[in-house]
Design a protein that fits this description.
single chain, 306 residues, Rossmann fold, alpha/beta, 13% strand
């Protein structure tokens, strides 16, 4: 692990990145990822791609921490992509993000600008950087029935016929084996998806810090958001037609505030449960990033002091 302490060190590092690399800024919630990404974008003539699984939704601003004012620095507004692209109450998945992010990268580079990926959703980030083979395929029941009638050995032979087996775990369980063959057959009909699922080289900056300070920041930020419109935001989403059940599925702020509005939780219980849930979420984020490192992705860590 390389720990960087000053912006000058970070700027020097990213200035030396390879020409085919994008810049990724990741870290747990409440560590100031957006502010760093915006500063880098301003100084490097860049644009930002949001890697946040909930910031894709319109009208979900306070609870997701879009911090729209942070994108303007010294009078210059930095473009940010993949926010406000889906309706609240709908589902948006990592495969859709992957396609949209590839397209955004292509467009930003076409303008001769740097690409800065910024967010806390580890799965979204890893899917893009490692080139996960994801596709929004709809199961063809007839084809599936034909595949399911075959033995594991026959399915393995079919999978091998598409090329070398890079991931042998696909052949260890029948369900995974069936899914792998389904995806390969889909790629045969839709080769554009295979082209999309390529790794994206990136220099990665990770923001970390003292756990107690991060915890204090999470709690104080939650109080501020509840006092400055988060309850009203969820009320407006429901009034506009968002399904409360779907809002609950989004988790964290939208789950617990919706339960409060439904009368399931009182204010104090809502705050306590939500505060605990956000702290747990922060820990899960760091667990994901550590796993990324164990799997060979180099993260250059920045210590924040608040």
């Amino acid at each position: 692990m390389i720990t960087l302490h000053h912006y000058q060190d970070i700027f020097q590092l990213v200035s030396q990145k390879k020409s085919n690399e994008i810049i990724t800024v990741l870290g747990p919630t409440a560590t100031g990822k957006t502010k760093l990404a915006v500063r880098l974008a301003r100084d490097l003539n860049g644009e930002i791609i949001s890697a946040d699984s909930r910031q894709v939704y319109r009208g979900m601003d306070i609870g997701t921490g879009k911090d729209l004012s942070d994108y303007t620095l010294d009078g210059q507004t930095i473009p940010c992509h993949l926010t406000d692209i889906a309706e609240p109450g709908t589902e948006y998945n990592v495969a859709q993000f992957q396609v949209a992010a590839y397209q955004a990268i292509k467009e930003i580079r076409g303008r001769g600008r740097e690409v800065i990926l910024c967010g806390g959703s580890g799965m979204y980030i890893e899917a893009l950087l490692k080139g996960y083979r994801l596709s929004p395929i709809t199961r063809d029941e007839e084809v599936f029935a034909q595949l399911n009638a075959k033995t594991d050995e026959e399915l393995t032979d079919i999978l091998a016929s598409f090329g070398p087996l890079h991931n042998h775990t696909d052949t260890c369980e029948r369900e995974r084996l069936l899914k792998a063959v389904e995806i390969e057959l889909y790629y045969q009909k839709h080769p554009e998806w295979r082209e999309l699922s390529q790794p994206t080289p990136s220099l990665i900056i990770g923001i970390a810090g003292d756990r107690d300070k991060i915890r204090a920041k999470i709690t104080s930020r939650l109080k501020e958001r509840l006092e400055h419109g988060m309850i009203e935001e969820v009320q407006n989403l429901i009034a506009a037609g968002a399904n409360p059940s779907q809002l609950i599925k989004y988790g964290l702020e939208y789950k617990y505030v919706t339960l409060y509005l439904q009368g399931v939780l009182d204010w104090n219980t809502m705050f306590e449960k939500l505060n605990i849930a956000i702290h747990q979420f922060s820990k899960r984020q760091m667990t994901w990033y550590r796993r990324m490192e164990r799997n060979g992705m180099k993260i250059n860590w920045v210590e924040v002091g608040f």
